[in-house]
Amino acid sequence: MEVQDFEQIFQQKIDNEIKIEPKDWMPDAYRKTNIRQISQHAHSEVVGMLPEGNWISRAPSLKRKAILLAKVQDEAGHGLYLYSAAETLGISRDEMIEQLLTGKAKYSSIFNYPTLTWADMGAIGWLVDGAAILNQVMLCRTSYGPYARAMVRICKEESFHQRQGFEVLLVLSKGTNEQKAMCQDAINRWWWPSLMMFGPKDSESTNSDLSMKWKIKRKSNDELRQNFIDMIAEQVKILGMTLPDPNLKWNEERKHYDFGEINWDEFWNVVKGNGPCNKQRLEARKKAHENGNWVREAALMYAEKRKNRTATKVA
Amino acid sequence: MKNYINKYFYGDYGEIEGGSSSSNTTEHQWPLWEIFIRSKQGLDHKHVGSLHAADAPMAIENARDVYTRRMEGISIWVVESKYITASNPDEAGELYEPAKNKIYRHPTFYQLPEEVNHM
Amino acid sequence: MQYLINYTLYLADTTLILSQRNSEWCGHGPILEQDIALTNIALDLLGQSRSLYQYAAELIGNNATEDSLAYLRNEREFKNLLLVELPNTDWAQTIVKQFYFSIYQLYLFQQLQQHSNTHIAAIAEKAIKEIMYHARWSSEWVIRLGDGTTESHGRMLNAIDELKNYTNEMFIPTAYEVEMNIDLKLIQQQWNEKVNNIFEEATLLFPNKTFSQTGGKTGTHTEHLGYILAEMQYLQRSYPNAQW
Lengths: 315, 119, 244
Prior knowledge:
Radius of gyration of chain A: 22 Å
Largest interface: A-C, 48 and 48 residues
Order of helices and strands of chain C: HHHHHHHHHHH
CATH superfamily of chain C: Ferritin, core subunit, four-helix bundle
Shape of chain A: globular
Mean pLDDT of chain C: 97
CATH class of chain C: Mainly Alpha
Distance between the termini of chain C: 31 Å
Oligomer: heterotrimer
Order of helices and strands of chain A: HHHHHHHHHHEEHH
Structural class of chain C: mainly alpha
Low-confidence stretches of chain C: none
Strand content of chain A: under 5%
CATH architecture of chain C: Up-down Bundle
Strand content of chain C: under 5%
Structural class of chain A: mainly alpha
CATH topology of chain C: Ferritin
Helix content of chain A: 55-70%
Shape of chain C: globular
Number of strands of chain C: 0
Number of strands of chain A: 2
Helix content of chain C: 55-70%
Distance between the termini of chain A: 50 Å
Low-confidence stretches of chain A: none
Number of helices of chain A: 12
Mean pLDDT of chain A: 94
Radius of gyration of chain C: 17 Å
Largest sheet of chain A: 2 strands, antiparallel
């Protein structure tokens, strides 16, 4: 068979909603695109532990502390599931981590924004996780089997994340004047960055066409962004808060909310490393990895010793 | 199938980005393990994913912490990924197609009178 | 009654502060799998402290809650062991701290399970399986690091040395422990045996002559506790009476 035939069979499977599995033939570009997307997704989970981890020690009640700790831990788990999915494509976790630490691989820019007050824990859960979930629900049906299965597991676990975030804000919105102000301030700061999470406009996105054809992605950036805005614009009313966009209003004709222009200059700058916390986040990951070197080495060495001892005993 | 078609890309993402493609760290990483979990008594162990661990006892404990945080399991199997042999998808035809011709193995193949149809 | 309150707070404070220290690793662990493992332990300890604070609050009355006890008492009122408030220096030291405490907690809670106070017995009963796992997990890491590489062995020696003056406090009874009728002599004996066994397997040696730093149980702490509380309690202190 020629490469073209393989490609044809491959595309037929995709078109017929048959999942692609690790040992199946796949075009190089499909493999690369998946490795890139899955590993970036994994990095985002792991780097995403940092802004929220920042508040674990200061959570205002023991209940909130337990919830936040469990949530940040879940993110470690999600990173792990995703690294494992990427590993089925023939890249090792160490290589992926190296790409993250050397700046070759990206992660979601949202995590380069700082968490300044407790209300940010609520805003992240509600807006950032809310935006992520739209993307993730779509990815549960992505064409690469291991990725889709990891996403199903993640979506199941993720379901409490957005709810707890909204609940944090709900309590603040009913609290003292200071708490209400804290709540509105967090929404103001996280609103635009969370819209940026869906990526550039469709007219400017480079990878989208092929990703759609291969059903890695199933909805466009703009479609997902619009879904998100329509959902949040309604939910914010329950909080009695506002979204910081004077142009946000319901469009009866489109049956969608219209919204203002995103600051794409800021978006590209944060992507390029000029965000408020880019350096700090990467430094934290580097430090954790480097400080962990001797621990990982020691565990390997001990495993080796034990194996040899058992072997000697048997002989 | 020709070899080049089935090529695995180690670190190809780095190549795209203009960086070097591989590192020597891989040999030092904890091996990968496949995790199987019995969700409740009476059911089979089912593959749930993988993780890294230095040895088998650690793999069991890591699986406990990673894959049973929400009471998903009561028993864990671990096996180092390199010991899994998988069938080749290109041989799927010869392996699985022949079973399709043996419809008489299925109970629905047999038409019985109404009175005994729940047999 | 006061002794029972003090004792319950001693256990609650100790588990909370160790949880607080362990959770500092969340997002910074040596590998994802172990980041998750240590966070699980932090969550277990936090859960234990909450049960204990809730019981203490019940005993105290006066609208006390788990949060008023954790967030509105000061440095001199906290009764946790000094051992658990010491800052994390590296993974080895965190492991040794957890190991020392888990082994102690295991034998202690075995006794508490049989305690005449049914509330305390029930809390101990509920926690004991978690503690058994912590003891197992930390023992394995002690062995792994002690008998691992030259570097890990060296780091374990440092950790043992750093912590050597902070283990006896567990076994020196305060007045409220005496009233609780806990056989600390027995626990110390069991603890020594277990620690020595694990250390032997880890090719490590438990220091036989140590000085005893004490005071945590009665509210005289190291300088570190003040910072832990300043951080932990900041929101409750800044916004009195707010709900979160």
